C-alpha cells in the first residue's frame, strides 16, 4: 500500500513536493503504528511475536544500539514494513530515536519511488499528447531510472551487510534465549516505557 502512495506522490506532485509529502506521511504513519503497538495494541503485538522468530535477534540488538538497528531495518526489507512498525514498539528503542531513524532510513526508497512516479507522469503526458520529449530528455529519464536502481541495490547491500554484522555480534546472547522469547506485559502509562523483553540465561533456567 505504501508503495502506491509513494508512486502516487511523485505522479501527482512531482519530485520535490512529492518526496517531502511522502517522506513526512510515511514517517507519521510508521510513528502512529508504533505508538499504537506500545499502548492499546500491545497484546496484539505480543501475540504475533511467535510468527516472526527472526525478530528475536533484532530485539536483542536494539537493546545495545536502537537507533542504528532501526535505521538499518528501514533500509533492508528483513520484515514486512507494516508489521515491523508494531514489532519495534515492544523493544526498548525510544520514540524519538524510532521516528528519526525511520525517517532517515525510508528516504532512499521514498526518493526512488517518487522519481519513478514522476517519470510515469511524464510518460503519461507524452502518451496523451500533453507534452513532448526530446532525445536528451529521454536520455535523462533512462539514466535517472538506471541510477535509481543501482543506488537502491548498493544501499540495500551495504545496509544488509551492516545489519548482519550487528546481529551477529549478539549471537552469543541469542544462543542462550529460550525458544519462546519471554515477554513481560506490564502496563505502563508512559509511551517512553516499552514492553520489557526479559532474557533468561540457560543457567538461570536450570536453577529454576
Automatic annotation (TrEMBL):
Q: At the top level of its lineage, which domain of life is listed?
A: Eukaryota
What is the protein name stated in its UniProt record? VTT domain-containing protein
What keywords tag this UniProt record? Cell membrane, Membrane, Transmembrane, Transmembrane helix
Taxonomic lineage from the root: Eukaryota, Viridiplantae, Streptophyta, Embryophyta, Tracheophyta
Could you give one GO CC term from the UniProt record?
Answer: plasma membrane
Enumerate the subcellular locations listed in this protein's record, separating them with semicolons. Cell membrane
Primary residence: membrane
* TM stretches of this protein: 24-45, 66-88, 100-117, 138-159
Domain (VTT) ranges: 6-118
Task: Identify its membrane topology class.
Answer: Multi-pass membrane protein
Q: Does the UniProt entry include the keyword Zinc-finger? A: no
InterPro entries linked: TMEM64 (IPR015414), VTT_dom (IPR032816)
Question: Which Pfam families has this protein been placed in?
Answer: VTT_dom
Amino acid at each position: 500500500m505504501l508503495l502506491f502512495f509513494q508512486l502516487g506522490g511523485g505522479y501527482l506532485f512531482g519530485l520535490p513536493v512529492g518526496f517531502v509529502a511522502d517522506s513526512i506521511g510515511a514517517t507519521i504513519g510508521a510513528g502512529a503504528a508504533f505508538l499504537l503497538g506500545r499502548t492499546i495494541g500491545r497484546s496484539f503485538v505480543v501475540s504475533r511475536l511467535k510468527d516472526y522468530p527472526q525478530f528475536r535477534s533484532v530485539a536483542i540488538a536494539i537493546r545495545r544500539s536502537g537507533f542504528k538497528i532501526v535505521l538499518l531495518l528501514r533500509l533492508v526489507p528483513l520484515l514486512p514494513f507494516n508489521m515491523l512498525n508494531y514489532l519495534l514498539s515492544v523493544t526498548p528503542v525510544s520514540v524519538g530515536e524510532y521516528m528519526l531513524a525511520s525517517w532517515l532510513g525510508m528516504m532512499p526508497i521514498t526518493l526512488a519511488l517518487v522519481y519513478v512516479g514522476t517519470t510515469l507522469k511524464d510518460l503519461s503526458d507524452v502518451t496523451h499528447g500533453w507534452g513532448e520529449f526530446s532525445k536528451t530528455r529521454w536520455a535523462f529519464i533512462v539514466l535517472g531510472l538506471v541510477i535509481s536502481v543501482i543506488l537502491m541495490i548498493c544501499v540495500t547491500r551495504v545496509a544488509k551487510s551492516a545489519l548482519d554484522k550487528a546481529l551477529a555480534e549478539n549471537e552469543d546472547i541469542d544462543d542462550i534465549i529460550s525458544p519462546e522469547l519471554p515477554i513481560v506485559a506490564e502496563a505502563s502509562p508512559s509511551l517512553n516505557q516499552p514492553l520489557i523483553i526479559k532474557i533468561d540465561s540457560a543457567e538461570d533456567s536450570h536453577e529454576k
